[in-house]
Backbone:
């Protein structure tokens, strides 16, 4: 089977599962404005918004200290050299979205690797209306994995369509963008869209050169909050990815988690004293067993119940930027002041940098912010 159900309303994955160069800027996107007549849309976001994400959807306000990285300061999110981080579009897969209109952008409610109660998210959530028709993006033979329940889903070729009540049967021949394969389940307001390779390993559905979800674009850079630092060199930070393509159905499109985060430490002369250390790099599905090394206490998605009952749902994304998958700030450097630069990427490869002054003394790094007690002493 492709997934196990551990939490209502979320597509989940475990280790035992078995069975583009995209146009980053979509000029037709409009941003949601609560002040627009009838709760509609406005061409320019209101004060306090981030990109097109309105203020009520933000976990915290945009940080005025965030900056754009200098040219050559960091690599592309996708330049990690791993197979299918880019390209690898499945055979016969057709460009477009699994919801009509097929060749216009649709809003995203969640991305790959976002934390769930029993897994890391195995695809992208596409905002939709209950009962909306769902179409295949690749022709093939339908396989109804689950016909009902919170994770009702259908697989056709390399793609899995979750939270979809099937209108096809297993073994039925499906044509891309022609056959209605199912309808969005009542109360769900979205479909989850996953892609697997020939080994049934999940891929990033938004990867450059391999995605079918075009047009897709985002012009809003990630937002990074102020980090909290422990004496042993651990650091946590809150961050989120606002979106310029925002819609309101029964709820307003939320912000996403960043696609990747990393840090680098510089001395007082501006010379790097560490390499670029990746806290996580989401070009592929990350391991559920590493969740507590990626996410810090307090990180959570709004959950199914929020989106089913409220118009505004706000996630809290808090990451172990140092001391999780990335090493803690090194304790063996000469005492003095350093510059900690934290980086965040989104799925469109936009990046943000945040510079923070930190100090190393005889008893370790000078603590800053509110560092979780649960993580004290847990650095590798």
Residues:
């Amino acid at each position: 089977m492709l997934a196990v159900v551990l939490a209502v309303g979320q597509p989940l994955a475990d280790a035992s599962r078995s069975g583009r160069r995209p146009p980053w800027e979509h000029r037709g996107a409009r941003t949601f404005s609560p002040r627009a007549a009838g709760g509609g849309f406005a061409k320019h976001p209101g004060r306090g918004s981030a990109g097109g994400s309105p203020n009520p959807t933000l976990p915290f306000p945009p940080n005025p200290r965030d900056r754009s990285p200098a040219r050559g300061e960091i690599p592309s999110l996708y330049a990690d050299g791993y197979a299918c981080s880019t390209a690898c579009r499945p055979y016969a897969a057709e460009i477009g979205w699994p919801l009509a209109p097929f060749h216009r952008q649709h809003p995203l409610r969640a991305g790959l690797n976002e934390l769930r109660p029993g897994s890391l998210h195995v695809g992208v959530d596409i905002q939709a209306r209950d009962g909306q028709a769902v179409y295949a993006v690749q022709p093939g033979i339908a396989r109804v994995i689950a016909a009902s329940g919170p994770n009702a889903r259908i697989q056709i070729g390399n793609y899995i369509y979750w939270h979809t009540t099937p209108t096809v049967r297993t073994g039925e021949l499906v044509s891309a963008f022609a056959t209605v394969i199912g309808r969005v389940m009542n109360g769900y307001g979205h479909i989850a869209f996953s892609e697997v390779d020939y080994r049934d390993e999940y891929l990033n559905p938004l990867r450059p050169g391999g995605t079918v979800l075009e047009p897709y674009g985002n012009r809003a850079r990630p937002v990074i909050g102020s980090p909290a630092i422990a004496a042993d060199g651990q650091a946590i930070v809150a961050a989120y990815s606002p979106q310029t393509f925002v819609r309101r159905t029964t709820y307003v499109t939320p912000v996403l988690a960043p696609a990747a985060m990393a840090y680098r430490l510089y001395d007082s002369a501006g010379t790097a004293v560490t390499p670029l250390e990746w806290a996580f790099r989401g070009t592929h599905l990350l391991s559920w067993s590493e969740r507590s090394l990626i996410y810090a206490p307090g990180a959570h998605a709004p959950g199914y119940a929020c989106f089913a009952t409220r118009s505004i749902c706000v996630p809290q994304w808090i990451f172990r930027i140092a001391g999780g998958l990335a090493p803690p700030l090194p304790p063996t450097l000469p005492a003095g002041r350093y510059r900690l630069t934290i980086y965040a990427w989104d799925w469109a490869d936009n990046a943000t940098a945040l510079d923070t002054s930190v100090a190393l003394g005889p008893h370790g790094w000078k603590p800053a912010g509110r560092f979780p007690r649960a993580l004290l002493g847990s650095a590798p």
Remarks:
- Residues 304-309 form the longest helix (6 residues).
- Residues 223-375 form a domain with the Immunoglobulin-like fold (CATH 2.60.40).
